[in-house]
Amino acid sequence: MKDKAIAILSLFASTSTLLCCALPTLLVTLGLGAVVAGAVSSFPWLAPLSQNKEWVFLVAGLFIGTNWVLVLRWDRRAACEVPADGAGAETACHVAGRFSRVVLWMSTGLYAVGFAVAFLAFPIGEALGWL
User: Fold this and answer.
1) For 47-102, what is each residue's pLDDT tens digit?
2) d(Cα 127, Cα 11) in Å, to the nearest integer?
3) Most distant CA pair in the chain: distance in Å?
4) Three-class SS string for the chain?
5) Which is more confident, 66 or 6?
6) 59 or 6, which is more confident?
7) Are 107 and 16 in contact (CB under 8 A)?
8) For residue 117, what are the CA distances in angstroms to 19, 41, 88, 98?
């Protein structure tokens, strides 16, 4: 149960990094600043998140890192403990493990995209003379 909660939190945290920081940066870079202004006026909670993007990315990274540790530790044990229910419990255990890995990879991908856009895209564009 704890593993599933951390998997969901890591997905939520990585998605929030996209909403607060990466997506607005990408839209402004593409010249769509009016869209960002409209989004911030419709969802005022985006402004404080964007102002604290370092903390948002740090917390999201901690959740995702914790999820990696839990999944890798779970994979090393490789066998699910089978309670009295037998095969049904073992199947449920493997489905939960697969779910955790899928959420982990989705979270890691979202986090990587968010980090690249929020922290790397603008400096690289400036260095190459694109901006």
Assistant:
1) 887 788 888 888 888 888 887 887 777 655 544 555 555 566 666 667 767 777 77
2) 32
3) 65
4) CHHHHHHHHHHHHHHHHHHHHHHHHHHHHCCCHHHHHHHHHHCCCHHHHHHCHHHHHHHHHHHHHHHHHHHHHHHHHCCCCCCCCCHHHHHHHHHHHHHHHHHHHHHHHHHHHHHHHHHHHHHHHHHCCCC
5) 66
6) 59
7) no
8) 11, 22, 44, 29
